[in-house]
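Sequence, structure tokens passed on for absentees:
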Amino acid sequence: MLKVTQTKNSLLDGAVVADELYTTPQDGKDFFESLDKSAKEPTKLAPRNTFIRAGVLTTVRGSAYMEYGNTKVLAIVAPPKELIRASARRMNMGVLNCYVNFAAFATGDLESVPERERNLASMLTKAMEPVVCRTEFLNFQLDIRVLILDDDGCLLSTAINCCGVALVECGISTYDLITASTACIYQEHIFLNPSAKMEELLWKHRGNSSNTSTPSDQEHGLIITASMDTFEQIAQCQQCGYLTPDTYVKLLDYTLAVNKSLRQIVRGVLTKRVKEQHELDLREKAENALEDQRLEGIIEKLKTQGLDEFIQSNIKEDPYVKRQ
């Protein structure tokens, strides 16, 4: 049995598949042949089945939960806090810190979790820095915390989308809504929103290119694009593998098209959240008005009846107590 030598790759952040499914090149080839790949070029530029909910936690000001297929992410944003004097230095921009943690049940390879958390946190910080208006909180720091509940590929792009929603929910000023997506190419087939198994197959191919039957000059790689569509700007674009310039541009266009679809979903979620909050405020305002009206009635009774008469009029007999 061929022993697989894993190499460090921070961009391919798919889950490590348990039980070593791809122990030989033939195993990987069999899995690739079993995939549904009717055409080499994708015909539908759409995201996975997506669920986003803003304000899922009441104990923090900004929070969001996102399911992108089977990938599940929770993001929390706290209001900016002042830097400690010992570490503070005069800066013209605030500090943005991102922290990523895996739930204990999210992955089976616990040894690689600390390194993956650091890599994802670093890449997430680079993606979110161009979005936040850091000039509005000088000498303050903004902390974004992400909890990975399940990983089925597109982990970094899902975390970026979820953090973008949490930032708006927290009331942090941003230049635009940010959306991100992932695409990869393997054996001349392009996969949008690749699964964790597909990312794992690509990752092991890169680590064992000399031992596989696939030609070394054949294109294979992955690209993650985060964009702000209002200004037609790319907040972050990360690529790994071997891609020709034409293929790189093609994958970039595909991810940008998916980002536009995700943007519509995010806008709908945030609009619904604003409407819900407005209805909640109106309901609370109506309840407060009724309470004020009740208190005004009590005050009027006190003025007309007096304290003793008011107390006596409000004393009610216990129906379960027998009169003597």
Summary: Residues 279-313 form one domain. The helical segments are 25-34, 113-128, 155-170, 196-207, 245-305, 307-313.
